[in-house]
Each structure stands twice: as structure tokens, then as C-alpha cells.
Design a protein that fits this description.
Shape: globular
Strand content: 15-25%
Distance between the termini: 46 Å
Order of helices and strands: EEEEEHHHH
Strand order of the largest sheet: 4-3-5
Number of helices: 4
């Protein structure tokens, strides 16, 4: 019996490949908002973050590194207001 192909995606933080179902998807919606998509099916341009502690707890939020990485991955210039909203959603999801 033929083995089913498992789709792989790259984490934008650590640049490692993981099975798609193990990653958290971040999406730029058609309304140009940035949201966390836990279902993996939201419409819009998406990128992925793995569930490793170093990637989930971004100390780089303070330095602005995440904003640059997200802008590059989502092909979108992110205003500071939208970025702060996303960062607050992310921290709530992490339980911090």
C-alpha cells in the first residue's frame, strides 16, 4: 500500500520543516488583519510557527524581530497598531 504524503511547512522563526498539522498558522486576512488560525483553514495568506518553546515564547517581540519576520512572510507592511493587537492575541493564547 502506498504511503500517504505528509505536507511539510517551514517555521518562520527557526526555519525548520515540520508536518503542517503540528504548526500554528498566522494569517493575513483579505480585510488586512493578522489573526492566529488554529483550524488551518482561514482565508488569506498564511505562514507557520512551530510549537517549540523558543518559537512560541518570542522574546524577540520586544526587539521588533517578529514584526519584520511577519512582514516578510505575509508580504504586507504591518502598522504598529495591528502588530500590537496581534501580539496581545498571541500572548493570550500562550497564557501570559
Amino acid at each position: 500500500m502506498k504511503q500517504k504524503k505528509i505536507p511539510l511547512r517551514k517555521c518562520i522563526v527557526c526555519q525548520e520543516m515540520f508536518p503542517k498539522k503540528e504548526l500554528i498558522r498566522v494569517v493575513r486576512t483579505p480585510e488586512e488583519e493578522i489573526v492566529i488560525d488554529l483550524t488551518g483553514k482561514a482565508a488569506g495568506r498564511g505562514t507557520y510557527v512551530c510549537r517549540q518553546d523558543s518559537c512560541l515564547k518570542p522574546d524577540a517581540f520586544a526587539s521588533g524581530k517578529w514584526k519584520k519576520v511577519l512582514e516578510r512572510a505575509l508580504n504586507f507592511t504591518i502598522s504598529q497598531e495591528k502588530y500590537d493587537t496581534f501580539r496581545n492575541q498571541w500572548m493570550e493564547m500562550m497564557g501570559q
